[in-house]
Amino acid sequence: MTNPRPRRASKQQAPSEEPARYCDQPACPSASGCTAARAEAFLLLGPCGTRPLGPPWVPAGIVERPDAALGERIAARAARHSLSQIALIAAQRDDLPDGGSETLAAAVRAIRRASPATRVEITCGDFGREARCLRAVLAARPQQFHVGLGTCPRLYPKVLPGCDYVAMLECLRVAREEFETIRLKATLSFGLGETRDELVASIADLKSVRVEELCLAPAPPELRRGAGPSAEWVERVALVARKLAFDRVAVLAEPRPCGVICE
Ligand code: SF4
Asked: How far is CA 161 from CA 52, 153, 157, in A?
C-alpha cells in the first residue's frame, strides 16, 4: 500500500458529539424500517476512498484523515439507544498503512464492549489485497461480513476501476475458512450492462465461497445503463439463486445506501 498524506483532514467531531449517521445523508428508502428495527449505518473511514467500493457504492475521491475516536462514539450511541444492528462501512483506503483495518477493528471491538446486544455488520474492500488486514478486522468478531461484489468481472474496469473481483471473492473465502461463525452476506447489482449469464456466474462464485445471504439490488441511477432489466429478468435470476440454496435471497426494488436491512 502507498502512504501519501490524506489531502485534507476530516472535520473531527468533539468526543461527546453524536456520530454522523450515514442514514441521514442521502434519502434512504429504508429509513423508517431501519428506525423501527433500531438499525443504523456509519461511514468509518470517510465519504471517499482511494478506490471505489462496490455496493453501497462509496466513491473514489479526495480522502480524509480518519477520525480515530469515531468508533468509540458509535459504540456509545449503540449503548445509549439500545441499537439492534449497526453497519460499519469502510471505504477502500490504500493511502493508509493498514488500509484503515485497525480503525475498523477497534470500532467493532468498542461496540461489542459497550453494547454486547448490538449486531455488527462490516462492509469493506480488500485492503489492498493484504489478507493480514482483513484477518485483523474479522478477529474483532463482527457478527456479519458484507461484501459488495457489485458486478461481474468483465465490468470491473469500467464500474469499479482499480478493484479486483477475484480479491473480493478471496476475502469471503478467508472469512469462511478461518472465521466460520461470522455470517457472510454479499450484494450484486443489476442494470450495469451485465448479461444474465454473467450475473448467474457471479452468483455461483458467491455460492462457491459459501456466502449465506445474497442481496440483488438495482444499480444506482448514475451507474445504471439504460432503463435496466425488466422485473421478469431479475426474477428469473433470483430463481436461479434460490435453487442454489442460499439461506436467504433478497431482491430490492430500489438501491440502498447500505446493506444492513436487505429485504
Ligand atoms: S438502509 Fe442503512 S443507511 Fe439506510 S436507514 Fe437503514 S441503516 Fe441507515
From this structure: 7, 11, 4
- The CATH number linked to 222 is 3.20.20.70
The reply to whether ligand 1 has any atom less than 6 angstroms from the CB of 215 is no
Atom of ligand 1 nearest to the CA of 35: 5
8 pLDDT above the threshold of 50 = no
Closest Cα to atom 3 of ligand 1? 23
Does this model's pTM top 0.90? My answer is yes
The DSSP bridge pattern shows strands 85-89 and 119-123 to be: parallel
DSSP per-residue codes, 160-171: STT--HHHHHHH
94 is a domain residue? yes
The pLDDT tens digits for 142-175 are 999 999 999 999 999 999 999 999 999 999 999 9
Q: Does the structure show a pLDDT above 70 at 112? A: yes
6 is a domain residue: no
